[in-house]
Amino acid sequence: xxxxxxxxxxxxxKRLTKAIKMVKSPxxxxxxxxxxxxxxxxxxxxxxxx
Length: 50
What we know:
The protein is 12% helix and 52% strand. The chain is mostly beta strands. The longest helix has 6 residues, at 43-48. It is elongated, with a radius of gyration of 12 Å.
């Protein structure tokens, strides 16, 4: 299950995106949020991975 929360960040000449997804912990079964800052073209691939 992924929560797609995307914010555009601009630093100088680079354009970056911060993506947040919600993943279920295999040990406890609780949900946690994983954040990553990357180029906008990699967001959909990152969100579709488990």
